[in-house]
C-alpha cells in the first residue's frame, strides 16, 4: 500500500491546492527564463539571419546595435574594392512611430540594400519579397499591418507587400523592411518649419544641401561584407581599419556586444529574479512538507507503535514530496503553454531550460523531504498514548 498516495487521496483538495501553488511558482520561473531566451533570440535575429561575415561601422563605435553608427553613403564602393571581399550591402535600422488606422504604431525600420539584397533571408508568412521597386515594405505581423495596407512613413506612402512572423527587435517592436534608399528617405524626413528655420538662419546656400536646420549625416549605419571562403578575414579587417574612419566587427563580435553590452543588465536582472523565485519555491515546498508531517505526527507514532520501520515513514514523506513536485511541474508546463503565447513578448520554452528547472525542483523536493523526515524521526511510539 502506498501511504503517500493514500494520504493524497484522503485530502485531494489540499493536495491539489498545494500542487497548484508549486505550479504557479514554477510557471513564474519558466516565464522568466523563457522571457530571457526570447529577448536574446529577438536581439540576435538580424545578426544571425542577415548572413554577413563582417560589419563595417563608424570608427571607434560599436554600432549599429550596441551604439549609434553612421558611415559615408559611398562606403560600400570603397569596401567593395578591398581584395577578398565577395559582396557588400548597406544596412540601416532605426525606430519609427507612424499613424495607421486612427492610431499610432511603433516599428523598427530596417533598410535592405535592393537590388543587391532582395530580402530572401526573411522568413515570409505571406506575400512576396521586395522586387526592386520603391515605396514597398515587408512588415512583421506584430505591427498589425496586413498585405495591401498602405502606411505613411516619412513623407511617402508605402504598400505592404509581404508579412513576416516573430521578426522583432530587442525592444519587442516589429520590424518593417524597406529598400535602403527608402529607409534613408524616411530617416531624413524634416518638417517644413525646420527647412524655413534653416533658410532663415543660414540662407539658401547653407540649407540647400539637406534642406534642414538640423545637422544631417549619413543614414547608412554599416556596410555588411561577405568574404571569399579562401581569404583570411584578419587580413581584410586590417586593410579596412587602416583607413582610420571605420571599425570592422565580425559577426561573433556583434553577438558578443549585443549580449554582454546592451543586454547585460537585463540578463542579470532576469537571472536574479529567477534565483529569487527558486529560493522562495524551496522555502514554500519545505514548509508544506514540514506542515504535512506535523499534522501526521499522531499517525506516524501509531505506525511506529505497530512496528513500522523508520524507512517506511521516510518513504511516505519522500514520496509525498515527489508527488507534489511532479504534479506541480506537470501543471506548470500546462499553464505555461496556455498562458505564455498570449504575452506581448516572446517567451521561449527551451527543453534544456525545462530540464534544468525540473532538476532544480527535484532537488528542492529532496531537501523538503529531508526536513520532514528529520522531524518524523524524532517522534516516539509512546506519543500515540499522550
From TrEMBL:
Its main location: membrane. The keyword Ion transport does not apply. It is a multi-pass membrane protein. The chain crosses the membrane at residues 15-36, 270-292, 312-334, 354-373. Keywords: Cell membrane, Membrane, Transmembrane, Transmembrane helix, Transport. InterPro entries: ABC-4/HrtB_transporter (IPR051125), ABC3_permease_C (IPR003838), MacB_PCD (IPR025857). GO terms for cellular component: plasma membrane. The keyword ATP-binding does not apply. It is found in: Cell membrane. Residues 272-380 form the ABC3 transporter permease C-terminal domain. Residues 16-242 form the MacB-like periplasmic core domain. This is ABC transporter permease. It comes from Ancylobacter pratisalsi. The lineage of its organism: Bacteria, Pseudomonadati, Pseudomonadota, Alphaproteobacteria, Hyphomicrobiales.
